[in-house]
Amino acid sequence: MGRIGDAARMAVAEQALAAYAELDAGQKAGFFAQIRDGFSPDPAHIRAAFAAYDADPSAGTLVPLFNAVEPPRQTLLRRLNTAPGATLKLVNMRADLLAAMRKDPSLAPLDADFAHLFASWFNRGFLRIERIDWSTPAAVLEKIMNYETVHPMKGWEDLRRRLDPADRRFYAFFHPATGNEPLIFVEVALTRDIPAEIAPILTAPRRAAADDATTAVFYSINNTLEGLKGVSFGNFLIKQVVAELAAELPALKTFVTLSPAPGFAAWLASGEDPQAADLSAELDLGAWLNDRDEAARLKPQVEALAARYFTGARTKSGAPRDPVARFHLGNGAAAWRVNWPGDLSDGAIRRAHGLMINYLYEPAEIEAQHEAFVRDGTIATGAPLAAVLAR
Amino acid sequence: MGRIGDAARMAVAEQALAAYAELDAGQKAGFFAQIRDGFSPDPAHIRAAFAAYDADPSAGTLVPLFNAVEPPRQTLLRRLNTAPGATLKLVNMRADLLAAMRKDPSLAPLDADFAHLFASWFNRGFLRIERIDWSTPAAVLEKIMNYETVHPMKGWEDLRRRLDPADRRFYAFFHPATGNEPLIFVEVALTRDIPAEIAPILTAPRRAAADDATTAVFYSINNTLEGLKGVSFGNFLIKQVVAELAAELPALKTFVTLSPAPGFAAWLASGEDPQAADLSAELDLGAWLNDRDEAARLKPQVEALAARYFTGARTKSGAPRDPVARFHLGNGAAAWRVNWPGDLSDGAIRRAHGLMINYLYEPAEIEAQHEAFVRDGTIATGAPLAAVLAR
Amino acid sequence: MGRIGDAARMAVAEQALAAYAELDAGQKAGFFAQIRDGFSPDPAHIRAAFAAYDADPSAGTLVPLFNAVEPPRQTLLRRLNTAPGATLKLVNMRADLLAAMRKDPSLAPLDADFAHLFASWFNRGFLRIERIDWSTPAAVLEKIMNYETVHPMKGWEDLRRRLDPADRRFYAFFHPATGNEPLIFVEVALTRDIPAEIAPILTAPRRAAADDATTAVFYSINNTLEGLKGVSFGNFLIKQVVAELAAELPALKTFVTLSPAPGFAAWLASGEDPQAADLSAELDLGAWLNDRDEAARLKPQVEALAARYFTGARTKSGAPRDPVARFHLGNGAAAWRVNWPGDLSDGAIRRAHGLMINYLYEPAEIEAQHEAFVRDGTIATGAPLAAVLAR
Amino acid sequence: MGRIGDAARMAVAEQALAAYAELDAGQKAGFFAQIRDGFSPDPAHIRAAFAAYDADPSAGTLVPLFNAVEPPRQTLLRRLNTAPGATLKLVNMRADLLAAMRKDPSLAPLDADFAHLFASWFNRGFLRIERIDWSTPAAVLEKIMNYETVHPMKGWEDLRRRLDPADRRFYAFFHPATGNEPLIFVEVALTRDIPAEIAPILTAPRRAAADDATTAVFYSINNTLEGLKGVSFGNFLIKQVVAELAAELPALKTFVTLSPAPGFAAWLASGEDPQAADLSAELDLGAWLNDRDEAARLKPQVEALAARYFTGARTKSGAPRDPVARFHLGNGAAAWRVNWPGDLSDGAIRRAHGLMINYLYEPAEIEAQHEAFVRDGTIATGAPLAAVLAR
User: Where is the Malonyl-CoA decarboxylase N-terminal domain (chains A, B, C, D) (predicted)?
Assistant: First the structure.
């Protein structure tokens, strides 16, 4: 496409994307390999540009080196993006690529190109936030319904129950080039205290008004397009929603999540903590599910290990083991309180023995906590969690 | 900004842009030099990544090399772009940079970073076309009025004369992140023949309807934001407007420009063409301006030299000398007819002795003409121009 | 409310409507009686104005008579309508009134006031047509779903099946003062022939495109707000939809309904036609529902009587007995073809033994047929129906 | 049009309005007379309906009498209103009628029909308020510019000066059936005290922000369409704007006008007040216009007579003589302060010797003041005016 004019390129890009859509998974993998190899920079150019830079490393010699090194694949993808509706197609193309990479990891360099471009294209500055409610177009609501995986919805009535009452809010980010496709969305309940269980939020009767709410609970955050993996929106969305809610409802004082703990059961079973193995086995037996006394007996142990899990369990690189914890603590939130049992749905039992946790977004603390977390891995804890740790 | 979280970055970006706005020109130049030098990649990293690539030049070793070579300046600019309204501010920052470069060309590497990012951000896929008319918000119309430099407007009445009649059209590209700022716009007159003079188009009474028009005349194309220099929109805009007009008014058969020839007077004066010097002097005298006979006498010579100018005068790299010609011929248009005198405004007299030219956009020929132009510099000529050349 | 200022009235109107909303059915009936009597014109004024008119019946003496006769109730309703959101509340108030009138017919004069005002307020000139599709706000779609009574919907999936395919259309009228409340809507299927049965339209797979459709089938028309009884929208809506579809899809040549015959079973049972009684009894037995041969045997008789029903059965005032026939024939449509069995749903069996009919809207004939119908009750018939009559 | 169907009527209405548009003033007058006479109710019907009513004056016998008396002209106008864009055409038709009535007052009964319908169609419940600013479509701004007659604008720059600064507001009412045609608009300046002169408001530099304003000054209210004469919007608009401003800018405490006194010069000249004749003559001489001392000398006398004018000068029916005073006092405002000289424009000198007045809208007092004004003509006065009266 290099030789042809801008507008002609647009037509060629359209045809190329249409042709791509006809390929099966195997052909797509072949296509990806072809692009990876066929649109590589010329090693001779790179070597020459490097030699010049090496002789005199300066801003002036860097420009030609950068130009020599930048993969022509990126230019190709930018040109494909001129076709009408191309952006969403390219996002979905990368989802195909991620799937193909599971079989053929050597495609990763092409993924790096996608990731690099998408970070530019889906820059926060280009996103717009929108409230989602019962007057949102049905086509968007249907997407929301399908994309909700944290606490899946059972249909339109369930969606309406979460969207429509006065004490509920949905917000989503949209990008102008991907139209009515939500990129990420968050579900919020407005309450009068910090909830410990998800079921009442999903099913209980609502209050008629939101004015007396003191607490905004972020109880589900969903990324939607697999092809945007690694492009981070969540932090911006939470911050923006906090700002909008604070402006709309001055009585709101507390901004908190009610979050799953998807890595808890696996960590417990791993026996990494010496006291975990027995508890893991007991929880697996499941007697506590139907026996209130048994649950009451286990509760202090679960809380204690949960507290250790969130504050002590780390990956090799020192990050929190729990992926949701990584996200919220990285945003500057504090681990506020462990809640057990907080979610009795099948998935939550399997992944976390029903454990949930609140992360607190305290606007005045976010920045300092975030910095401490980034600098030396310090995890901010709330009073309830600290009390458990101190037991 | 590297260590801090996404949302905190947004606040820092906002403060940084606010602080930048307070700087004077000298301080801005200092700021640019600081960024150019302070956000450079580490030569040691580059050398190490190059060594690995050099040993095994592959897609896999290219990724780390690319990451090492990519100037942190680009990451910085992307982060600044997370602030509300940042995109336009960054575009204007680059306009400042271009001004500073005139004094200090060593700032060019930073400009390369801006150019690289803007090519991505202002991708055609993100632009939307809009018709501009008398129901457009006044704030946008005012910008249009100020940005029109090809045939400047004298005020609101003049604007209205160009916008509002049934046989006139304005179209502009907008980008979602720069709001109501037109990036480029084109002015169109719907006529029944190919015009040779600009004055009647700017001032003559209009026809009541557009249905019987056979010809769409693109008589003014204006880029607006200096900071977007080098990001090309014009070709896309013309193609899109041709498509929209053809769909709206099936009677339209001819799509043509009425364009200035801004380099003609200088070329003539340069004496590059042996017959030019005398003519240049005669035209400079200006007797023809008030003497119809004199003008008639000069006309054949002007036309002959104009034809040679458009088809023969080249830059060192072989491109047409005339910048407007480069644009339209590069888009695949044909040089249709030279018109003298076509524009008696001061600027047009000074730059082109009043010469104008029509470029013809013939949809069926555009692609082939564009390719021939790119491949070997072939300039497509229309019958009237060919006739002059053959005289 | 007469003595107070405009803006104060607005607040009083708001309070009055809020107070009304708290009343139970009995209190509402009392309120209606009170208004009917308390806001009556003064007989003395009327007599005086009449005397002046009677002495000199002219445009000049009519004005005071009109003013004396116009019930202050209308002024009251106009003033109530200044409150925010009042229009829909007044429409619903009239629905309450209609319910109350079933017990107390003496409230009819108040209903005449509502009807008079609504005819003015809901003038065609104030309505806007909108296409309803899958990008319509869910809140509107939910209303549509609830208001559909001709062929009720089973839920969101059913709604989507009717709205979303390329060969389906919904259109509705909205009034600016009643917001997102559809006043009437029509459901259209785009087909390649005139359908005789409703089931395939409601359930069969759809064609991917609408471009090759030759026939637009109006298969369901629903008025929504009971309080707008007697304010006619249907004729305007059909005409407007015909115009929009003809403009969008030039291949459409036939505009036809597939309509119920809600009065057929009752008419047949009435024995008004000497041959009807036996057929009515046989159809009631219902053996034909499961016995194809039996149905085939009865078919000619049903068709013959149906043809007589649509062309001969009249009310005392000479109008067609069938209410749906009155509507479409009054609009200038022709009774095209009787279809039996066309609808095997319970309601259609009960009211019409499953009979359906197509009314043809032939743009070139509509006016003449309408006039003939209004002038002397002439019913236009299509060839298929004429053939049945001629058997 | 009575016999034809709804949709056919729409076409006939369209033709009728198009035909009307071709008539000259004389033909229009003829047309009006024809309608007045040709669409009159039947006296025999009226007499019969009256006889029934007279025998038993009840809600039941009133309905047929009302139907007999209602001029068929109103039905005709309602039917014309079904044509696309008809509402504005009918408003303009009434403007023609008002012009024709100046020559032929016998057309008044037809005007009563227009007035009656427009009161219904342009009910407050159907209007929407919109803020007018620099992002408003130019077509609307141009209308605003042309309709401003209280303090005429000199062009776009003048308009911008009134619209665009942070401490200025424009609001207008629109009706859905008349599209982008403003029906009435008000111009507001946000200040820190109650202004006594108009010139600084129209020309002085603006403050950058509106947050510190304590006072909203309504300094120009314009009705736009002559055909809507007698349909009152102003009161509603002021009240709505007060509500919107109070919500947006909580620091606003004072809502006040700066208004002309269009009847002052004539009243002074009339000599109705024994001390007025001399002052009127002196003011007419105009020496005070260029002589500061002379103005200072006259000021107490002007203020004293102005105070008497606003509180004492009445029409035969007891209403305030000044038409602007009638409007604001009728709305419940108080006559706050007389300002002399407040407006040195030609018109203001001619009509009011440059006098202006502030009317104060004190939300807590409006209702009581309005009632007292309506009940017994009591005029609420502010402290400054009271002080002048007490001198």
Answer: 39-122
Q: Is residue A1 part of a domain?
A: no
Chain A residues in contact with B63 by the CB 8 A cut-off are 108-109, 112
Question: Could A367 and B83 be called an inter-chain contact, meaning their C-beta atoms sit closer than 8 Å?
Answer: no
- Distance between CA atoms of D156 and B138, rounded to whole angstroms? 10
- Does D151 contact C at CB distance below 8 Å? no
Residues B275, B190 share a domain: no
For B29-48, write each residue's pLDDT tens digit.
Answer: 999 999 999 999 999 999 99
Of B236, B257, B278, the residue that ends a domain is: B257
Q: How far is A155 from chain C (nearest CA, A)?
A: 9
The runs of H, that is alpha helices, within chain C are 6-21, 25-38, 43-55, 59-69, 72-80, 86-103, 108-121, 138-147, 156-163, 199-203, 234-248, 264-269, 276-285, 292-312, 323-330, 346-352, 363-376, 383-390
CA of A17, closest CA in chain C: separation in Å?
21
**Residue A25 forms contact with C (CB below 8 Å):** no
Closest by CA position to A216, among listed A244, A185, A242, A247: A242
Residues C270 and C251 in one domain: no
Is D45 designated active site?
A: no
User: What does the block give as tokens for D260?
Assistant: 């002309």
Chain D residues within 8 A of C60 when measuring between CB atoms: 106, 108-109
d(CA A31, CA A386): 54
Report yes or no: C83 and C20 within 8 Å, Cβ to Cβ: no
If residue A191 lies in a helix (H) or strand (E), which one and from where to where? strand A184-191
Mean pLDDT to the nearest integer, D103-110: 96
CB contact under 8 A, A180 and C134: no
Q: What is the mean pLDDT of residues B357-367?
A: 93
Determine which helix (DSSP H) or strand (DSSP E) holds D200, and give its type and residue range. helix D199-203
Report the half-sphere exposure of D382 (CA within 13 A, side-chain side).
Answer: 20
pLDDT per residue as tens digits for the range C263-293: 999 999 998 998 898 999 999 999 999 999 9
Q: Do C252 and C272 sit in the same domain of this protein?
A: no
Q: Does B147 share its domain with B199?
A: yes
Q: Residue D187's domain is classified under what CATH number?
A: 3.40.630.180
Residues 279-338 on A with a CB inside 8 Å of B are 330-332
Same domain, A310 and A263: yes
Let me know whether A303 and A293 are in one domain: yes
The ipTM (two decimal places) reads 0.85
pLDDT at A45 over 70: yes
Return the partners of chain B (3 or more C-beta pairs < 8 Å).
A, D
Q: Give chains near A: 3+ CB pairs under 8 A.
A: B, C
Which residue in the set D141, D155, D180 is minimally distant from B138, CB to CB?
D141
Q: Do chains B and C touch (3 or more CB pairs under 8 A)?
A: no
Q: Over range A81-101, report the average pLDDT.
A: 95
Please tell me which residue in B151, B220, B259, B353 is annotated as part of the active site: B259
Q: Which of D73, D91, D121 is the last residue of a domain?
A: D121
Any idea which residue has 């400047």 for tokens? Answer: B152
Q: Give the position of tokens 């009425």.
A: B258
Whether residue A182 is found in the same domain as residue A271: no
Q: What is the CATH number of the domain that holds B110?
A: 1.20.140.90
- Residue range(s) defining the domain that contains residue A351: 259-389
**Rounded Cα–Cα distance for residues A273 and A268 (Å):** 7
Q: What is the pLDDT of residue A1?
A: 46
How many structural domains compose chain B? 3
Indicate whether B141 belongs to any domain. Answer: yes
Together in a domain, A313 and A200:
no
CA nearest to C157 within chain A: A156
- With 60 as the cut, is the pLDDT of residue C231 above it? yes
**B211 belongs to a structural domain:** yes
Backbone angles phi, psi at D92, to 5 degrees: -70, -30
Q: Which chains have 3+ CB pairs within 8 A of D?
A: B, C
Q: How far is C279 from chain D (nearest CA, A)?
A: 36
